[in-house]
Amino acid sequence: MSNIKLFLDLPTEITEILLEENIDLAHFLNHEFAELEVKLQYDHLPFSGDSIEGDFATKDLSPLLTINGAVSIAIIVSSLGLMINKVMQTYNHKPYVVTVVTEKTMQDEKGNPVSVRTEQPILLEPRAANTQEGFTFQYNEKGIVLKIGTEHQETK
């Protein structure tokens, strides 16, 4: 039985969603693969400046999955990638609120200038974009780092 440490280097917003929404990646993998024993914790990434793309150790904490079992790491990564992709698509395509602030100068009854401020919230839908998801691996004796991210290209 193997013991694999799989660190997930995700965009900060996605890590925050996982924490806020109590999305348990270990529970997901335990459900998908009955032969695995997976535990989730949060820890610092094990790599620094010598990483594939810049400095992996820039964030405070990242999801760390400790996996015990005899399943190919490629199958595990594929399943995790699909789940995290769904979270990222939901995050990247949700509407957001922008507040438009206007300020006018008017006169009161005595003719003195008075500033009047109004705020109007507007719900915006995200623009259509071509999104490319990608990932990179890095491995050493401390474990595997799977960096997952997206790149957006606005469409007109």
3D architecture notes:
This protein is 24% helix and 46% strand. The chain has helices spanning 12-20, 25-32, 73-92; strands spanning 2-9, 37-43, 62-69, 96-107, 113-124, 129-140, 143-154. A five-stranded mixed beta sheet has the order 2-3-1-7-6, with helices on one face. A two-stranded antiparallel sheet has the order 4-5. Strand 6 and strand 7 (143-154) form a beta hairpin. The longest helix is centred in the middle third of the chain and has 20 residues, at 73-92. Residues 49-58 have low confidence and may be disordered.
Structure keywords:
156 residues, alpha+beta, 5-stranded mixed β-sheet, 3 helices, 7 strands
Which range best describes the helical content: under 10%, 10-25%, 25-40%, 40-55%, 55-70% or over 70%? 10-25%
- Poorly predicted regions are 49-58
Strand order of the largest sheet: 2-3-1-7-6
Count of all domains? 1
Distance between the termini: 52 Å
